[in-house]
Amino acid sequence: MTGALDGLLVIELGHVLAGPFAATLLGDFGAEVIKIERPAGGDGQRTMGPAAGSSPLWFSVLGRNKKSVTLDIKTPEGNELLRRMLARADVLVENFKPGTLERLGFSPADLETRNPGLVVLRISGFGQIGPYSGRRGFGKVAEAFSGATNLTGQPDQVPVHPGYSLGDLTAGMMGAMGVLLALQSRHATGRGQVIDLALYEALFRMIEWQIPITAATGSSIARSGNKFPFSGAFSTDVYRTRDGQFVAVSASSPRLIMVLDTFVRERVAGVPEPSPAPARELTDALGQWISTRDAAGAIDELDRAGIIAGLVNTPEDLLADPHVAARRNIVTVADADGTPISMPNAMPSLSRTPGEVHWPAPALGAHTDEVLRDLLGVSTDRRDDLRAKGII
What we know:
By secondary structure, the chain is an alpha/beta fold.
């Protein structure tokens, strides 16, 4: 099978997370992604977190399906080699601070002149325009600025960051979607375009109900623990079980709320009569009932009653789960040294052109000679000279 994006050439100037994640998603579905890295050290994420053998585990996922090329693009010779690559490319992904690409001599206007069909994805903390565009931004600051962190945590405590890179990863997903939209437009016009994405904007788009409700009612929406921030929408919470695990329960429609109400009243005595909105007493009573059950038994009984519930999984749970295995959500691939590395598979699942994990992140510069030779026709002697100068 061929990937949906076979034949697409992507040049990545990304570092650490949002930009590289967008390029990873494209590479998962067949795009040829050439990751340009500094000869000294490469992407900073190579040194983040534990390693398996010589492979940094976090970076093994972020850098998978990519070719690593070391190139000092601040030198005239390195800059010219990158310019030649971009003349052949379909997509450029970068997540520098605004103005950096221009200072390197690659303004969007210049890129368009040399390659009118190039699609340029630019991810930055606060975008290319606006009074905050000059500020540096990282994922946790983006999560806070978007309004997402304001909703996370207990109402009487400080807001809580999500325990993973939510801001970066959602920005990467929206960036990859933007690339696909721009490529679709290019089919009709033959012209590429620039995608200007602020790091906070993906989460801001996802928390869509905050703006209309606050603007129309003047209400202040804030965090409410595991409950939904405004009443009447649905009933949800997370409960501890007898065996020390956690179960999430969600009733997201009036009918399901009534099913939940009936279920609890049949099993727990003394629950007050329901109010128009899901009562706190109802969810507290459900918590009492779940606390007397093991997780598997509680989920099974809730499911038989038509109530949506599921285990709060740990990584260990996911690695052992038969459903995750049946859907091939996790794959194991070997690095260049033969070390097996397990990681999430390419998603979503396509029936005709599915994504695939071909290899984990390569060693720094592993494809420099291959790319310079095959894409640009750079001779062995010339590559040796560039390497001696520290340019590659």
